[in-house]
């Protein structure tokens, strides 16, 4: 019998994002985001899927909150849609804000902590047409949107997250082009990195002005980067560059007030430094109260001249990176399962960027779920994935890491970006035709963990 107890007050929750669950893309004054436009372009999203119907959460949020309460969840991480609150990036739309007021009030009535993110990838399309995140002005627009949102909702929210995974916004959106807006311009991608960070900094300043008591942070996606041959200098160099682009290019300006010198040099041919003006790093490094960590897998990398994947790469300036497969279980995303990597990531943050409270804001897995004869979904794989990662998180806590919560991705099956509805991450199944919700075995199990504040396994 193994009994793993979490610290008192540990925050147990589940996460979603606006475009992935809400649907109702044309209701109450919402206008297009870059994802609505991207979904219309042939071949960009598997199955030609789009933001409709998603999980119809915009209309069914009351039922969904009641279900979270039944499951004993203590917190709900969701995102606020910029094109609802400021359609086309312009004037404030009270009807858009009103939806989030009702959502948050319903959560509070059920004693569930609202954990909103201001930007989970749904840039108003109009702002993309003005240059998107490659345009410095977008950072200021983001701060204006943050100000309007926090003025309206600040009395109801304790912790604000500015951005979700700016790595994806910048490098998948503007370099590899597999995410909206689908651009393949490395110079635009590195400009986007700086402007996303500047947007974070400007927004945190406006959040603190509007809600002095609020806690503010950001969520990053983190991976251990493991060189195939640690005694091969070219493998080590690829690993250093990938770690720089994935992790340090965000963490260092946020938490040390400077960009990593090696990455500044690597990105010089792409004009990175040209975007950084006097005073920007001071804005970006404004003190944060917490860091959100999204963890799914590790990157195992080597340098091999023939190995680079064809097509535009998200790894700007990195020639010849290849990602050999290891003998490990895989999810339906084809991502390898490496729970120990979560311990690695948490320990690294603890040592390299100390005294920062951490939350796991996403962790979970896509698997093909089948209904058994009795109408239940026994998602043993997903349950095992979450359990193994909770053990890895607990190992980090025992080693002294200040980890304060865990949100599984996701509460509901939803629109998995370029993969459409085919990939299911939910602990609750959604039948998209009927919108019937069915909690999977993982939801029942996670509910028990949240209630016990412990992972109890009999072996
Ligand atoms: C994260 N990659 O996305 C997002 O925050 C979620 O919205 C998403 O549903 C979840 O993880 C599962 O994918 C990522 O290709 C999407 O490296 C793609 C990548 C990383 C994160």
3D architecture notes:
It catalyses: Hydrolysis of terminal, non-reducing beta-D-glucosyl residues with release of beta-D-glucose. Belongs to the glycosyl hydrolase 1 family. This is Beta-glucosidase. The protein is of the alpha/beta class and 459 residues long. Helix content is 39%, strand content 16%. It is built from 15 helices and 15 strands. It has helices at residues 18-21, 34-40, 57-70, 82-85, 94-109, 125-129, 137-153, 166-174, 186-210, 233-256, 261-266, 280-284, 340-352, 380-398, 441-452; strands at 2-5, 11-15, 75-79, 113-119, 159-164, 215-221, 225-227, 290-294, 299-303, 321-322, 358-362, 403-409, 428-431, 436-439, 454-457. It has an eight-stranded parallel barrel, surrounded by five helices. The protein has a three-stranded mixed beta sheet with strand order 7-9-10, with helices on one face. A two-stranded antiparallel ribbon has the order 1-15. A hairpin with a 4-residue loop joins strand 13 and strand 14 (436-439). The model has no long low-confidence stretch (mean pLDDT 97). Bound molecules: 4-nitrophenyl beta-D-glucopyranoside.
């Amino acid at each position: 019998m193994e009994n793993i107890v979490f610290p008192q007050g540990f925050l147990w929750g589940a996460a979603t994002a606006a475009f992935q669950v809400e649907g109702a893309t044309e209701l109450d004054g919402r206008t297009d985001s870059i994802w609505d436009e991207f979904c219309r372009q042939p071949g960009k999203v598997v199955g030609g899927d789009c933001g409709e119907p998603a999980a119809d959460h915009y209309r069914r949020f009351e039922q969904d909150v009641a279900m979270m309460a039944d499951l004993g969840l203590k917190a709900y991480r969701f995102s606020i849609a910029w094109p609802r609150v400021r359609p086309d990036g312009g004037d404030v739309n009270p009807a858009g804000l009103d939806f989030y007021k009702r959502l948050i009030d319903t959560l509070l009535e059920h004693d569930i902590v609202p954990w909103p993110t201001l930007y989970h990838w749904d840039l108003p399309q109009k702002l993309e047409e003005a240059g998107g995140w490659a345009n410095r002005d977008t950072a200021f627009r983001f701060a204006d949107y943050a100000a309007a949102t926090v003025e309206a909702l600040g009395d109801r929210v304790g912790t604000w997250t500015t951005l979700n995974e700016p790595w994806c916004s910048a490098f998948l959106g503007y370099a590899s082009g597999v995410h909206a807006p689908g651009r393949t311009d490395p110079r635009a991608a590195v400009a986007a990195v700086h402007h996303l960070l500047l947007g974070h900094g400007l927004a945190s300043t406006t959040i603190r002005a509007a809600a002095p008591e609020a806690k503010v942070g950001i969520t990053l996606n983190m991976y251990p980067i493991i060189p195939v041959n640690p005694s091969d200098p070219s493998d080590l160099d690829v690993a250093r560059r990938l770690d720089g682009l994935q992790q340090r290019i965000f963490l260092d300006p946020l938490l040390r007030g400077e960009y990593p010198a090696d990455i500044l040099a690597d990105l010089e041919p792409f004009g990175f430094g040209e975007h950084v003006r006097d005073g920007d790093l001071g804005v970006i490094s404004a003190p944060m109260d917490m860091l959100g960590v999204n963890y799914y897998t590790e990157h195992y990398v080597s340098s091999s001249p023939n190995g680079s994947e064809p097509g535009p790469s998200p790894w700007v300036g990195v020639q010849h990176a290849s990602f050999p497969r290891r003998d490990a279980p895989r999810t339906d995303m084809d991502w390898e399962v490496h729970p120990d990597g979560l311990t690695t990531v948490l320990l690294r943050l603890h040592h390299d960027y100390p005294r920062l409270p951490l939350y796991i804001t996403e962790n979970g897995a896509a698997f093909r779920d089948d209904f058994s004869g009795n109408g239940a979904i026994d998602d043993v794989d997903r349950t095992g994935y979450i359990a193994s990662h909770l053990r890895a998180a607990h190992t980090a806590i025992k080693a002294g890491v200040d980890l304060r919560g865990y949100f599984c991705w996701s509460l509901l099956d939803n629109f998995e970006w370029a993969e459409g509805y085919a990939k299911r991450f939910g602990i609750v199944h959604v039948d998209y035709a009927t919108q019937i919700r069915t909690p999977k075995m993982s939801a029942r199990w996670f509910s028990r963990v949240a209630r016990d504040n412990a992972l109890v396994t009999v072996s």
